[in-house]
């Protein structure tokens, strides 16, 4: 396998989509194993959403203050820059891949920049490390300004050094909430409560898995300590069931939930705030993978993830995946999987310690996913007029009408009947909610294009 | 309540600060910030109204996935404010509906 890495038209040994923990680790490991690599990423700087950090022009001298395990990123970024200088890795930032075509050992990646088309990238193997976005469950008032994604608040803080408000309730489910609350508080926001709909009780059923992941326990203790210090009140088995305000959020109503996430009558109380950061875990971003036909499965957290071999091959020969695309599991797991994928793509044996680390972290991710998986009763806090699809402004009542009166049994049929999921975000925000209301369970999203593309760019594609 | 700011937390200072124009007012911004970040920094949480209900919206997902933060920048509608860098002297205007009302579609 020899190519001239300096020639952009040449076929690289490997094209990696995404420069987050998985893609970055894969690119530098593959380069170390002798492969030529093209790394494409939508962001301006490597790191993905987890290691998102301010533009150098913002002059942050301590970006690590907003991060956990920053050294793991900094080391790999230094390696990336070194391989870039030596020509082993071609790193293309601000290049969003919208389609991958080809088969076997001949792939073409079509991408766009802010200005227009990026030159096609050719490679013998493809690694999809496209990460995830936040899972949202609607509730009355969730479209009010000041209600923002928990991950969204974290992203805006990490990259733009800004807060959505001064008094921010953090709510939803999953351990990301702890990190978000700790970051917001450290950056000067008052966080009156972290509202967790799931619980940490179910973790107790996985004592062995917990004990094999001391670093994860330490991370949890770190956030717990930070929240105590900042006087953040944890409310377990509770949810924000309504946000109040006219022009922006002024307060939220919090209620206790039963085991199935149904609000318990008589437990509602109001918490004043000027922002709400909310999210219910993450959804793997599989647009490129499902367009290629990669097989999927339902993960422990109820999301759709890719079916992968221990060597991180997808069901499509020549296409690998790592990190959240194989099931949400966090940055450490993504780093390990990136390295594993690089080994198998290079035709090398996977080091046993690496395989063990992956197995241990995957087991933890499964326990975590099960503990925070949304219960069926959450739909009880929707009102008929509550918007479910934010883009097309489709209320819950219309979705229910499609299901109960028109016979829809899956999200796709609901979309055809109501336009829910047909707008700009292509169902990324309302997809999990619509699937739950349709009762058909989550199905893999099918999006022929992974991001908006200009018609002219499609017209330029070769006819084959 | 803490007086600390995100900028204090990460240390340092921006290389360049400037303003851009948003609906007739000057919004302070720093080089390296997006339009959405500068607006949040100025306490502005909404800069779009929806096509059907006319409801106010601003940044939600913060990473370019949700399209709630669409805004008109220098005359071009439907830019994602969470991805577009703030520019000195830029002209940002709230967007009503599709941003193409002039086309009467």
Structural class of chain B: alpha/beta
Global structural class of chain A: alpha/beta
Across the major sheet of chain B, the strand order is 2-1-7-5-6
In what range is the share of β-strand residues of chain B? 25-35%
Largest interface (C-beta under 8 Å): A-B, 56 and 49 residues
Summarize the biggest pleated sheet of chain B.
5 strands, mixed
Mean pLDDT of chain A, nearest integer?
94
Give the overall shape of chain A. globular
Helix content of chain A: 25-40%
Low-confidence stretches of chain A: none
Number of continuous helical runs of chain A:
13
Order of helices and strands of chain B: HEEHEEEEEE
Assembly classification = heterodimer
Quantity of strands of chain A, as a count:
21
Rg over C-alpha atoms of chain A, rounded to the nearest angstrom? 22 Å
Distance between the termini of chain A: 27 Å
Structural description of this entry:
The complex is a heterodimer of chains A (464) and B (105). Chain A is of the alpha/beta class. Helices cover 31% and strands 22% of the residues of chain A. Chain A contains 13 helices and 21 strands. In chain A, the strands form 6 sheets. In chain A, strands 1, 2, 3, 4, 5, 6 and 19 form a 7-stranded mixed sheet that branches. In chain A, strands 8-15-9-10-11 form a 5-stranded parallel sheet. A 3-stranded antiparallel sheet of chain A has the order 12-13-14, with no helix packed on it. In chain A, β1, α1 (21-32) and β2 (37-40) form a beta-alpha-beta unit. In chain A, α1 crosses α2. The longest helix of chain A has 21 residues, at 352-372. The radius of gyration of chain A is 22 Å and the shape is globular. The model of chain A has no long low-confidence stretch (mean pLDDT 94). Chain B has 105 residues and is of the alpha/beta class. Chain B is built from 2 helices and 8 strands; from the N terminus they run αββαββββββ. In chain B, a hairpin with a 6-residue loop joins β3 (48-49) and β4. The relative contact order of chain B is 0.21.
